[in-house]
Write a structure and sequence with these properties.
The structure is a single chain. With 560 residues, the chain is of the alpha/beta class. Helices cover 41% and strands 12% of the residues. The protein contains 18 helices and 14 strands. The radius of gyration is 26 Å and the shape is globular. The protein starts with a helix and ends in a 31-residue tail after the last helix.
Length: 560
């Protein structure tokens, strides 16, 4: 009952964090004096700036400027008085609260981060951009349209409300996109199915293909077709066009009856089952394996297990925005401590799964300005809708997570960091990433809130293999979906031999040259250098043992 009121956030975790911060602040009179002085100085500067706004050297943003990633006040309308003063007053307050909630001696790092993050979320609600009377863009729109923007905004609100209360109705983000119609359209066939996955083999689009197939292991937090969106930005289509045979795992969306599916079941019924099927279709050939996000973490575990057991089926490993060490896993760790995990386990125990709204809410909070408040302003105050986007349609097509799997994932990887520290057990025996000697291609993204690139970079000192690390522009999704046709992308890339000395991430960032363009061609060149000469394409699957028929791509599981 409590979880429904708090959106799944543990009140005990928040109480502990604020108690830590307030008790140490109360015992630090010097810090209290500094905070009070900062408030008085900021108020005095704002008052003087308002008095002399039109004086030389004054004007817009004379006190404080928005951060580069803050797009709430980027339009020129915000440079006019009094709206610019509203924005500067808000930014000064935001800066003051940041200084007040950080740097208090004795407060634990995680509690400090929780307090700072939660205060920032409350302040974001009060931003002048969120209110019609203090947002010049909204007022200008109302003047130009005669107030019609508020009518359209009310209509948008009613439409969204009906979508929330109507069971089974799709989000407005996905109304213009259909799985197998406009997204996930690469031609292929489901060649294997069990209770957890469908394995899709895609038809070749070249007369000859590389002998080593590619197996893609996506995350099961969202649907697989992030890597097969529209034809113009589909990684699957690009790979088949480059002469590779591609297999894709499509995970089944679990329900309450799947509460006891374990994390290791995803390895056995997912990665292992897919590799066994590929071996039946193309025997005696090694596989290029790719894992994205949580799928990359699972692939790392599977690869370490295979290395421990002497299994040589992997030719190369590619990890996209995937973490193997969770000590610095970004702001997502704010939702993961003992109190929060216990609270989530109580919720999942009742329901059997972590449902889609809790998953989506956690990720939206990490970028609340872009994903929550800017959208509310645009949809309900401006009366506009963002143009249809395949990426946003995919983002709205959320999934559930089984109780047991998610509990094991949070405890063994996030809380205990067992994989990085050599305590992770597979089939009762520990595995170690340092057993991996297969060449790795590792991709991080500059603005990743889910898997920060410096956390992804730690794989350099965890494996005993050649590591090619590539850092691309963009975020967790948009940085990965970077087709060569889009010119705005750039990346840095460097290979570290297994026996080469370690270079820290800051030095790497400073010394590695930047390359303009998509990272996809760089990766396919890397794959081609580790592949055999092109030959005739392999057959499309094998006949099921029961003689049954399996559907064409995108299959059935992705539609659930």
């Amino acid at each position: 009952m409590l979880a429904r009121l708090t959106g799944g956030i543990s009140p005990a975790a928040l109480l502990l964090a604020y108690t830590d911060w307030l008790s140490h602040l109360a015992a630090s009179p010097q810090r209290q004096i500094e905070i009070s002085q900062d408030a008085l100085v900021g108020a005095k500067r704002l008052f003087e700036s308002a008095q002399h706004y039109f004086s030389p050297g004054q004007g817009p943003w004379s006190l404080i400027r928005p951060q580069p990633q803050d797009r709430r006040f980027e339009r020129p309308e915000w440079e006019s008085p009094p709206f610019n003063l509203f924005a500067q007053a808000f930014l000064l307050g935001e800066q003051w609260w940041h200084n007040a909630t950080t740097g208090v001696r004795g407060v634990s790092r995680q509690n400090e981060a929780i307090v700072e993050f939660s205060i920032r979320q409350l302040l974001d609600v009060l931003a002048p951009s969120n209110f019609a009377a203090t947002n010049p863009e909204v007022l200008q729109k109302a003047f130009q349209s005669g107030g019609q923007n508020f009518v359209f905004g009310w209509q948008n609100f009613c439409s969204d409300w009906m979508g929330l209360v109507s069971v089974g109705r799709r989000s407005a983000d996905g109304d213009d996109f259909g799985v197998g119609e406009t997204v996930a359209t690469s031609p292929g066939k489901v060649v294997f199915r069990n209770e957890l996955i469908e394995l899709i083999e895609y038809y070749p689009t070249t007369s000859k293909v590389r002998p080593e197939p590619i197996l893609i292991v996506p995350a099961w937090i969202m649907k697989y077709y992030i890597l097969d969106l529209s034809p113009h930005n589909s990684l699957v289509k690009y790979l088949t066009g480059e002469g590779f045979t591609v297999f894709m795992i499509s995970w089944r969306n679990p329900d309450a009856g799947d509460r006891n599916i374990a994390f290791d079941d995803y390895r056995k019924l997912g990665v292992e089952a897919a590799l066994a099927t590929i071996e039946d279709i193309v025997p005696d050939r090694q596989v290029h394996a790719l894992g994205y996000c949580l799928g990359g973490t699972l692939l790392s575990i599977a690869a370490a297990t295979m290395a421990r057991d002497g299994d040589k089926r992997l030719k190369s490993i590619t990890l996209l925005a995937a973490q193997t060490d969770f000590t610095e896993a970004g702001e997502l760790t704010l939702f993961i401590n003992e109190s929060q995990v216990a609270f989530l386990e109580d919720i999942m125990w009742e329901r059997g799964v972590l449902d889609t709204t809790q998953m989506a809410g956690a990720f939206q909070l990490l970028r609340s300005n872009d994903l929550i408040w800017s959208r509310i302003t645009r949809d309900y105050l401006m009366g506009e809708r963002a143009p249809p986007s395949d990426l946003m349609a995919w983002n709205a097509d959320a999934t559930r997570l089984p109780y047991r799997m998610h509990s094991e994932y949070l405890r063994r990887l996030f809380l205990n960091n067992d994989l990085a520290e050599g305590r992770y057990l597979v089939e009762g025996k520990p595995i170690s990433l340092c057993d991996i000697h297969t060449p790795l291609f590792v991709v991080g993204t500059v603005r990743d809130h889910v898997a920060p690139w410096k956390s992804v970079y730690k794989l350099h000192y965890q494996v005993d293999a050649d590591v090619t690390f590539l850092l691309t522009s963009g975020g967790h999704n948009a940085g990965i979906v970077a087709p060569p046709s889009e010119q705005a992308h750039s990346y840095q890339v460097k290979t570290k031999a297994a026996d080469a000395p370690y270079t820290g991430p800051d030095e790497w960032l400073r010394t590695v040259p930047q390359v303009k363009g998509s990272w996809w061609p760089e990766w396919t060149r890397w794959l081609a250098a580790r592949s055999g000469e092109p030959s005739e394409p392999p057959p499309m699957g094998v006949t099921p043992a029961d003689g049954g028929r399996l559907p064409d791509a995108p299959g059935d599981y992705v539609r659930e």
